[in-house]
């Protein structure tokens, strides 16, 4: 099983590599993107961030995990492209 932490996510646009410093928190088996948060509540901005990472990495499955909740299942969201 391969796992990369803080995996760099380069952006290529019209043959030019843009340095925007996007970093995926956890990249599992090159097929699952995991974004870890510790916030009062998840917002649509957090989901948009994960969707951006999914599109740029060409992955279909992502997990958004918020650890600042009483029950872990309350802070877990699964997004699929």
> How many extended strands?
5
Helix-strand sequence: EEEHEE
Question: Gyration radius, to the nearest Å?
Answer: 13 Å
Pairing-aware structural class of the strands and helices?
A: alpha+beta
Characterize the largest beta sheet: strand count, sense, and whether it forms a barrel: 5 strands, mixed
Overall tally of domains: 1
The average pLDDT score comes to: 91
pLDDT < 50 stretches: none
Strands of the largest sheet, in order across it?
A: 1-2-3-4-5
Structure commentary:
The chain is 17% helix and 51% strand. By secondary structure, the chain is of the alpha+beta class. It has one domain (3-80). Strands 1-2-3-4-5 form a 5-stranded mixed sheet, with helices on one face. Helix 1 (44-57) links the parallel strand 3 (32-37) and strand 4. The radius of gyration is 13 Å and the shape is globular. The mean pLDDT is 91.
């Amino acid at each position: 099983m391969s796992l990369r932490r803080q995996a760099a996510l380069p952006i290529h646009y019209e043959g030019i590599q843009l340095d925007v410093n996007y970093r995926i928190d956890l990249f599992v088996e090159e097929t699952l993107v995991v974004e870890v948060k510790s916030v009062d509540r998840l917002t649509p901005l957090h989901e948009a961030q994960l969707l951006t990472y999914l599109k740029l990495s060409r992955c279909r499955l992502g997990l958004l995990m918020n650890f600042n909740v009483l029950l872990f299942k309350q802070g877990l969201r699964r997004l699929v492209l």
